[in-house]
User: Fold these one by one.
Assistant:
Number 1:
Amino acid sequence: MMKIITVPHKTLRQVAQPVSTVDKKFLGFLEQLGDTLAKKDNPKGVGLAAPQVDESWRVFTTLLPVSGNRNDGEPVLRYFLNPTFLEVSQELTFGDNPDEPILEGCLSIPEIYGPVPRHQWVVAEFDELVGTELKTRQERFEGYAARVMQHEYDHLEGRLFIDYSAELDLPLYKEKGKKMDEMSSEMVKAFYYQSLAK
């Protein structure tokens, strides 16, 4: 497994570089990235971007069922290279239930969770590996899968989910055992500014 870096590591705040060539080294990196996500436990992850393992490439992997719903079948590893969003919904959502927003977490920000407004759906264009060739395709993602895509794409832009908390005055929660303690707004701001350290 690869080491997952955590805030305030500088690579997490850099805009990642496009993938243009696929060689043996890069193929090995992709395999390790997927393996790291698949084997990550306590907590498990549903996505992992290259910057989170200290490589500034525009690539991430997801581990979701084919349907995109969290609890709907066996998860499948997928790789997204050089992704962009062609279209996004006007509507932003905190999850399916307005009274119980999804609390996003991040393997690079252990034990911290918070609600994040995300587009309900996105149409992504990205490169996929077919053998050792890059083939461009488009796909629409909705609901939870769209949320995961946006979270991982943010990593490629040097953006973290806690940025929304600081900018929009949203709560953050620290996991303590089996419960979540809400952080004060001052602590949220301080945590955010600490994450920007170079």
Note: The helical segments are 24-39, 143-156, 161-168, 185-195.
Number 2:
Amino acid sequence: MSRFGKTLGHTFIYMAGLVLNRGVAFLLVPLLTRVFSPEDFSRWDVCNTILVLLFPMLDFGMAPAVLRFYHEYPDLRDKRAAFNTSLIFVMGLHVLLVLAGLLAAPWLSLTVFRSPEHTGLIRIVVLLASATALGKQGLSLLRTMERSVAYAGLNVVRGVIGPAVIVTLVLRFRMGVAGALWGDLVGLIFLAGATLWVCRAWLQPVFRMDILRDMLRFALPLVPVGVSVALLLMVDRPFLVRVMDLKDMAPYSLGFRVGMLMALFTQSLQLSWPPSAMNMAAKPDGGATDIVRTGYLLQVVLFAGATAIACSTPELLRVFAPKTGYIGAANVIPWIAYSYAINGAVQVINAGIGISKRTIWSMWTTLASCALKLAITYWFILHYGIVGAAASTFIAFAFQLALTYLVTQRIVYPVPHDVKRIAALYGMSAVCMLLVLNVSDMTGLPSLCARTAIMAAFALAGWFGLLEAADRESTLGMAGALLRRARLRR
């Protein structure tokens, strides 16, 4: 199978695990929108926002460092030393950072919710961030060895345990938002423990300062990168809390959650693409042609997924929310779906920064994009409400994509991208998004026909216009290979 086929195959395996791993955020949303009041649903969404912001600080960039330095060291003993050094460092760091987070919880509650009464929720979120970061250490080792089946299997187990506990605490014990967070924490603790058990052959009491120094040089710039990416996605929440009630914010919280269905693919791609790109870059010829071709095809898949989600907005809302309390969410979903597709494109193009180990440039591009997001969000919210918040996210990610392309091509790791084909893909996706937004107020059969036509137009134009004959042949060959494997397994 081609490198594109292998990468896409690993991506879908990761996605299968993430569908259940993210069950707390996605598969339980229809339950939570019907059990929680709109205010509680927004409060739960804000707690998850804080989690996304805290995780990069607690991970400290060490999970990506495990992946990078596995490929850096040829000797197996050095690989083991790098993994154990990272794990021991992160565990020691958490003793201090988690304690600080628990003590600062009343201040955070007052800052975020304008009241200290939700201090307990903030403390659970701090523990969630810690469990997530610790689990990522072992998961990064599985990623770098491309053990996608083991990775997905662990997430499946977590996806069963976490939602089961959430349903019990929320429905039976009526614990509300706290119950949803506690259930998620139980699942994450189990995932962290099970992952380390799977990686037990790699666990050794080894800590090397020389390796830690090398890893920190790579990892430290990734901390502001992670925080900036989180701010790009989540900084609109504090602004929204300031200008509207949690009840009025509920349609945005739901629309963002549904649009985040694209995150199942972008996060899966983020897991599979870096090790794949590094393997291609390790070829004697540098693998530039394979990196360009595979990256472009992955971007086609990304924007096709965003178009499918945007065109399915009314149907998704019927599944995810009751008829009352969330009116207006339909105008948010397309903006967020395409924003996540752009974020995935950034990850694809960003591979050159990881290969070259010049992560400082990733820091500057994300910081610049975050600054733009902070500068425009409040104005957009004041003038356009929740749609303005979604649009500001789209604009900030589009800016980051353009900036990342310029940095990788002019400074860090230039490869021969086909600029015309990439521009055609982005332009066609933008047209489809605008068309979807224009038909969002239509109902019934006219709406269904219009959205079906948009999806069909993207599919036909993509297949015959964006893909070359060799791409179509490779895609059909990959599909045939996957079908043959599925039949053999039966």
Note: The chain has two domains: 22-219, 221-485.
Number 3:
Amino acid sequence: MSRYSKRIAMKRYAILSLVSLLLVACATSPTGRRQLMLVSEETAISASKEAYAQTLKPLSEEGKVDNDPVLKKRVTVITERLVAQAVKMRPATARWEWSIKVIDDPEVVNAWCMAGGKMAIYTGLIEQLQATDDEIAQVMGHEISHALANHQAEKMSVAMASSVGVIAVGAASDRPGVAMSGAALAAALAIKLPNSRTAETEADRIGIELAAKAGYDPRAAVTLWQKMAKVGGGRMPQFLSTHPAPQNRQQTLTALVPQMMPYYQSKEPRPTFKLQ
């Protein structure tokens, strides 16, 4: 077989492998949506644990993690109530190593939650939005919902599927340096990639319910996005680069508020889940 024929055969094999993976690697989100899942949730959680430590290490060394005890307590109290509701929704997540870190960076308007409940919120989001507890709850409820719906594993899967295509191109062009990224790198990349419009709608729907059941005003979901649209002075907040606003988001959330008010107004106890 000639060198050219070998390259073509390798390319075809890579493409056929990718198609086969796409046909069998499917899962279903909490809303019933079919998801591409080349990466298992367990793999995403393990990779996220490593990526979380690597992401926080330089920030900790600079003294930028959890250096305001009052703010840390405020965020933790809110998040523990939200996580308690997340565990009610998906009992298996009680085994996750849930944690929240407050990163001191007044310029960054962002928050995220990795697979397995590894979370962070930046002081810039709280300060620039002048966020109330109810609005912080909407942010973190939204982020927790991405983890509950396995969106990070989905984004990792899309990234890895794209990498298979890159490998095929590399094989065809004799570029041995092209290779698939490691799982931890894919996990770190996933929180920086934009969510799909469908994933955002799912997280909005689940997040506003988590927050309402935790005792936080669902109307804050609307004011949060109103503030988010105004902050930045013409410069898009980082949160909006990874959480693109679906069309009519505010209208959709406004329509959900009446459904969520009974949860918010309930007199039932608001349990908490101890974070690590």
Note: Residues 218 and 261 are 7 Å apart (CA to CA).
